[in-house]
Each structure stands twice: as structure tokens, then as C-alpha cells.
Design a protein that fits this description.
heterodimer, A: 246 residues, alpha/beta, Rossmann fold, 4-stranded antiparallel β-sheet, 37% helix, 26% strand, B: 330 residues, MetI-like fold
């Protein structure tokens, strides 16, 4: 595969919640193996943008191309698109009635239709990868926030997605647990996973992200590589925001 | 140490509960005892039912009632009284009310046992009643299956958030939560035959109970389903599961434990409501009791039926209560 393959492209993506204009025309491209960080003040539309990309929120207008395919077209089965897009949520959203391994196995078995044995093997492999192979039979309520989030990442990876979305994956975590989740994400980035990460973890972004999209008021006001943007932000909104969180 | 205590005592008065004089008086044991003696005296002086002018009788009894209620209220609302004392006063109050009823209601008590507890007249009737109970339980069981099926189906269909469908589902739920069950049954049984549909009393009862209580069950299921956090569906959908797969594999397993107590409550209420089927001549317990009442010209079968309902339903009501507590503990 060409390193410059476009994984996801949006063209004039717009989203209204009733009268509230949340996304005012987003145009961007994410190429294969790229790690893109989305930053911006609260209410800038970054989560909505991410959730529109796999149509968890239905965009009001515009186009989204996943590997060149227009996923807004009426003949598209969005469930099939979502099998290629892993998503990790701020609040983990593990299934509380299933243990860690069952959480991971569910979608591969019922969507990908792989065998129980194959799903178990894959699940154990992934739990090992996120450092939780000893927690396979633990239920979510028995796990710490950081452990839950790592299981959630393994659950998303079990579908062998082409791209991973992270919606503020560390915002609900106690400080001492943020590192273990970011470590897993760093490893994924090194392995060439395409990632879009809504996050304000500066250290992680500086180290792992190829590009920052800075959003404010429903538009991308500035984009570029992390070093440039952190050192020399051009737009007033970016400067203002960075001065507050640095 | 002493100085410290003094300061504290000095300060304490700011927070001490104060009562008006009259309140302190009525809560004194001497007052309670004395007023009790007065009431006993009053009770002995109450005129006999035949002896007095009706007006005098009613006024004196009403006044006596008022005083005894005030007296018991004074004891029962006193937080310094022990629970044992309150229980004695409560039983005493019930005893006095019973005594008043016995003396002044005008019932012919000597003949009462013959009316209400005439077991000879009921002889052989027990078998009929128990067969009726069997029909009641069978009706309830079949209707329970119908209720759960309809309730679950309606609740799940509502999750698909289709505007048009939702309007009709809401109309269904609202209609059957508003119209009394007896009306549903009577309409089905007596009116529908004119439209060419005659279902017979058993089928009418099952249909009416199923669709009627299905509406309540649908609301219970909906509440349970909506108690599952929306992030659960999002996570499931983001993995590529279809809406139906998400509901079946993620939402329902979490919703069912929440739904069981209110649903069991619905079903117990439905079991009670089977008695209404007697108006459409379904041969269930109450219908059987009424038949016996007519044929034996004695209300004992009705009392027996009431006792049977009580024996069957009280344990079920307790079970519902326990289930509710268990869910709250989780």
C-alpha cells in the first residue's frame, strides 16, 4: 500500500443540531498510517466531527470518503463501514454484563462471523498486547478506569480496523492511569495504525501525532505538525487556547 | 475542664428544642393516663342504641370518636413513647372502633356467622371454587405469556425510533392504559359479536388481559431499556453491530434484570384482574363463587373466594417487594 493513500476525506462536512450550527464545513484528508490529533476548546465541534466520520451522528450535509468510497451514499450499509473503523470513547462503554474477553470476542464473532476459538485466540493476543492477559475473565466493574480503557481499545482492535478513532480517551481517567492508556496508543501509532485522536494530551500529541487539526466554532482554523503549532501558532484562537493549557 | 463545660452549657440553649406550655402538658404521662380514664368513663356512659334519641346518640358517639382519635394521635405522634406502647394504643384504637361498630351498626350479629361463615352450606362447594381457581391461574398464565410478548415487542419497536410507528405504538399504550379492563372485556364480549367477531369468554379474557396489560408491560420494558446508558448502544454500533444485534446482545441483557420487578408487579395485578372475567362469564374463581352464592342463597362462597385470593396473592405481592429491594441493593 502506498503510504500516501487517503484513508478518510471529508468535503464540506456540515452538522446542525436543530438550529445550532456545530460543523460549518470541514474539509480534510487523513492518509494511511497518519496520526491526526484534533484539538480545540470545548464546544468547538471536535467530538461531533469525529462522531460524524462514522455516522454515529448523521451529518447534515457534505461528503465523507472512506478509502475513496462515499459513505453518505444511500446504498451504503454503515454497519459494514464501521467494521473498518474502531472507536474508543471517553467513558469506555465496556459491556458490563460481559467479561473482558467476551467484550472483545462479541463483535468479531457476530459481525465478522469468525469461530469462537479464533475469536478467543485473537482476544487473548490483544489482551496480552494491552498488558491485561491476566484480566481476561474480569468484569468491567472489577477493572480500574485505565484497565477498562485498555480493554476497550483491544475490543476495537479485535475487528482489525483500518483506522481508529479516539474520543478523549483519557479525559475520564485518574492522572496515574493516563500513562498506561497513552502507552498502548503510542505502540499502535508506531505499528502504523491510522488514528484520529481528540485529545489535549500535549506530550502524546507532540510525540506521536503527525498533524494537529485545531478546531474552533465548527471550523478547522489551523493545521500543521505539532512542533510548528505548539511553538508558533498562527491563528488567534490557537494562540489563546494554547496559552491556557500550556 | 469545668470552664469548658460551662461554656458549652452556655451555648447549648441556642439549639435546644422548645415547646409551648400546652404541648408539654399533653405529653405528660399523668395527662395521658388521666384522659384515658376519662375516655373509659365516657365509654361506659355512652347510651345504648335503642335507649337514646338518635341525634343525641350520633352526637355523643361522634364526640367520643373524636376524643379517642385525638388521644391515640397524641400517643402515636410522641417520639418519646416506646414502639410497644404505640402498638398497644393502635390495637386498643382498633378494638374500640370494632366495639363501636359491633354495638351501634344495627347488624344482627347472632345471625352473622350463619351468613358469612356457614361452612355447612358451602359443603362440596370448595371443589367448585378450586376448579375456578385453576381456571383463574390458567387464564393468568396464558395472558402473562401474551402480556410479556406484546410488551417486549412494543418496547423494542419503540427503540427503532421510527416516527410513524411510534405514534401508533403510543396510541396503543395510551388507549389500554386509560380504558378500564372491565370495559375492554365487555366491549370485546358483548359488542364485537355485532361486528361478526365472537371470541367466547375464555378467549375474550385472554385477549383483553394480554393487550391491556401488554400496554403496561411495554412501559415497564421501555423504562428498563432506557435505563441502559446510551454509550452502550454507541459502543455496539461502532463495532458494526446492527441495531437489532445491539438491542438483543447488549441492551436486553442489561435491561431485563431492571424490568423484572415492575413486570412481576404488572403480572400480579393482571392475576388480580382475572376476576373481572366473571362479567363475561369466564368460569374462573369469582364467577364460580357467585354461582354458589346464588344456588346456596348464602354469601359464604364469596368470603371463601376472597380468602383464596388473599392466600394466593399475598405471597406473590411479597415476592414483588423482595425483587424490588434486590434491584435497589445492586
Amino acid at each position: 500500500m502506498n503510504k500516501n493513500d487517503v484513508m478518510i476525506e471529508t468535503v464540506d462536512l456540515q452538522k446542525y443540531f436543530k438550529d445550532l450550527h456545530v460543523l460549518k464545513g470541514i474539509n480534510t484528508k487523513v492518509t494511511r498510517s497518519e496520526v491526526v490529533a484534533v484539538m480545540g476548546p470545548s464546544g468547538s465541534g471536535k467530538s461531533t466531527f469525529l462522531r460524524c466520520l462514522n455516522r454515529m451522528e448523521e451529518p447534515t450535509s457534505g461528503h465523507i470518503y472512506v478509502e475513496g468510497i462515499d459513505i453518505m451514499a444511500p446504498y451504503i450499509d454503515i454497519n459494514k463501514v464501521r467494521t473498518e473503523i474502531g472507536m474508543v470513547f471517553q467513558s469506555f462503554n465496556l459491556f458490563p454484563h460481559l467479561n473482558a474477553l467476551e467484550n472483545i470476542k462479541l463483535a468479531p464473532m457476530h459481525v465478522r462471523k469468525i469461530s469462537d476459538k479464533e475469536a478467543t485466540d485473537r482476544g487473548m493476543q490483544l489482551l496480552n498486547k494491552v498488558g491485561l492477559s491476566d484480566k481476561a475473565l474480569a468484569f468491567p466493574e472489577q477493572l480500574s478506569g485505565g484497565q477498562q480503557q485498555r480493554v476497550a481499545i483491544a475490543r476495537a482492535l479485535a475487528m482489525q480496523p483500518q483506522i481508529m478513532f479516539f474520543d478523549e480517551p483519557t479525559s475520564a481517567l485518574d492522572p496515574e492511569m493516563i500513562g498506561e492508556v497513552l502507552d498502548v496508543m503510542r505502540t499502535m501509532a508506531k505499528e502504523g495504525m491510522t488514528m484520529i485522536v481528540v485529545s489535549h494530551e500535549m506530550g502524546f500529541i507532540r510525540e506521536a501525532a503527525d498533524r494537529i487539526l485545531f478546531m474552533a466554532d465548527g471550523v478547522i482554523v489551523e493545521e500543521g505538525n505539532p512542533d510548528e503549532i505548539f511553538k508558533n501558532p498562527q491563528h488567534a484562537r490557537t494562540q489563546d487556547f494554547l496559552s491556557k493549557i500550556l | 475542664m469545668t470552664s469548658k463545660n460551662e461554656i458549652r452549657d452556655d451555648q447549648t440553649h441556642r439549639f435546644v428544642r422548645t415547646h409551648p406550655m400546652w404541648f408539654k402538658v399533653i405529653r405528660k404521662p399523668a395527662f395521658v393516663g388521666a384522659t384515658f380514664l376519662v375516655l373509659v368513663l365516657y365509654a361506659f356512659l355512652l347510651p345504648a342504641r335503642e335507649a337514646a334519641d338518635p341525634t343525641v346518640l350520633y352526637v355523643s358517639i361522634s364526640f367520643f370518636l373524636l376524643l379517642i382519635l385525638a388521644w391515640s394521635g397524641n400517643v402515636l405522634s410522641d417520639r418519646n413513647q416506646s414502639e410497644a406502647a404505640k402498638m398497644i394504643v393502635a390495637l386498643l384504637l382498633i378494638g374500640v372502633l370494632g366495639w363501636l361498630f359491633y354495638n351501634y351498626s344495627g347488624a344482627q350479629w347472632d345471625k352473622l356467622a350463619d351468613f358469612f361463615f356457614n361452612w355447612e352450606k358451602l359443603s362440596g362447594g370448595w371443589k367448585v371454587l378450586f376448579r375456578g381457581l385453576g381456571v383463574t391461574l390458567l387464564l393468568a398464565l396464558i395472558s402473562a405469556v401474551g402480556t410479556i410478548t406484546i410488551g417486549l415487542a412494543v418496547a423494542i419497536l419503540r427503540q427503532f425510533k421510527s416516527g410513524t410507528l411510534n405514534i401508533f405504538l403510543k396510541i396503543y399504550v395510551d388507549i389500554f392504559r386509560s380504558v378500564p379492563m372491565i370495559v375492554v372485556m365487555v366491549v370485546l364480549f358483548f359488542a364485537m359479536p355485532y361486528a361478526g367477531i365472537s371470541l367466547g369468554s375464555i378467549v375474550t379474557t385472554i385477549v383483553a388481559l394480554s393487550i391491556g396489560y401488554g400496554a403496561y408491560a411495554a412501559e415497564s420494558f421501555r423504562a428498563g431499556i432506557e435505563s441502559v446508558h446510551s454509550g452502550q448502544i454507541e459502543a455496539a454500533r461502532s463495532l458494526g453491530l446492527s441495531r437489532w444485534q445491539s438491542i438483543r446482545m447488549i441492551v436486553l441483557p442489561q435491561a431485563i434484570p431492571v424490568v423484572i420487578p415492575p413486570l412481576t408487579g404488572n403480572l400480579v395485578a393482571m392475576l388480580k384482574e382475572t376476576a373481572v372475567a366473571s362479567v363475561v362469564a369466564a368460569p374462573e374463581l369469582l364467577k364460580r363463587a357467585r354461582e354458589l352464592y346464588t344456588s346456596r342463597t348464602n354469601p359464604t362462597p364469596l368470603i371463601a373466594a376472597a380468602i383464596i385470593y388473599l392466600i394466593v396473592l399475598v405471597p406473590l405481592v411479597r415476592i414483588v417487594n423482595m425483587l424490588e429491594k434486590r434491584v435497589k441493593l445492586r
